[in-house]
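Tutorial handout. Part one gives the primary structure; part two gives the three-dimensional structure as tokens.
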Amino acid sequence: MDHFLYKHGVLHAEDVSVPDIARVVGTPFYVYSAATLRRHFEVFDQALSGMDHLVCYAMKANSNLAVLKLLGDMGAGMDVVSGGEYRRALAAGIPGERIVFSGVGKTREEMTLALTHGIRQFNLESEPEMRVLSEVATGLGVVAPVTVRVNPDVDAKTHAKIATGKSENKFGIPIARAREVYAEIAALPGLRAVGIDVHIGSQLTDLEPFRAAFTKVAALTEDLRADGHEIIRLDLGGGLGIPYERTNEVPPLPSDYGQVIRETVGHLGCEIEIEPGRLIAGNAGLMVSSVIYLKHGEGRDFLIVDAAMNDLVRPSMYDAHHDIVPVIEAGAGVEQVPHDIVGPVCETGDTFAKARDLPPLGDGDLVAFRSAGAYGAVMASEYNSRPLIPEVLVDGDHFAVIRKRPTYEEMLARDEIPEWL
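Part two.
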């Protein structure tokens, strides 16, 4: 569900016309719907109703401060994977006790930062990391709450680049070795094991991999408790997919996901943490672009737009699909023509879609890339010296620019030419 609908033939973000935003901020730009963000958080919160739980938004999906503040005000925790994300969470007003620190390569500096300003837990990924955190915490005279991310060797049946739960992936500790790792934690100073962490991948459209992983986590919980460890919290990660193609994909509902959690680990009396990112933010955003040229090629037509792979890299990186629609709705009976939709960057990979049916479009017409609220702006770059594009938040009938487009002067000022040149 989202709040991007045609009204009188014009695409709107909630009650604001997309062309009105384009006239103010220029194209390309991202636009997010506050109503959609709120609704998507609520469905996860409701899915775990009756259980002690915390929904920790995986902010790597979209880390704009306004988005974090909106979700934090609703009670969301934050799942961070870097010191920079941790600082963003604090800047958005999220207290340390609602911040979970994940990631495979936490540095001593990042550990010190989180232990100094407050942290709910560290999700540990390796034994060397565990020993370093013990040293850092002991040096600060504090005790770090930790979970261990276990790798259950479950095939998430998702894209190879976003699968994280198989034995060949870099994430976590093999679940078969978990008991000895927890025994070492118990012997180390400065650490307190509070739970178990698992995350098997992203954009999952089948609940069975979750069920398989959570069942293994339940058995491990019983084993660790038998060993004398106090396991009070289960961090079950995120990964539930979204419908990128409105006609074909029907991912499971959060309510069904919640039921799997109840059936597999609900009997353990643990507090449940989940870390959705894509499902909260993905369909809450559009990228809007203008047509520069329609180019007739050999046997195909190219629609050249002013957005590029540096603005939305997912199609180039993952061959990812985004529905692309005209902002002005085509009239009944207008012929749809296949187009290759491409950007102006000097890379063949700067291609958003091939043979995508669209009505006739020309210079200045607007198109919208749906499902662009997650892994869009956060993965953007300034390749080809193209400025990062603005982000806009709509709430009802008003909107605000929540990250402006930098000027070329601001971009150039970040570089320094040494005196000897």
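Part three, for discussion. The two ends are 56 Å apart (CA to CA). Residues 292 and 363 are 5 Å apart (CA to CA).
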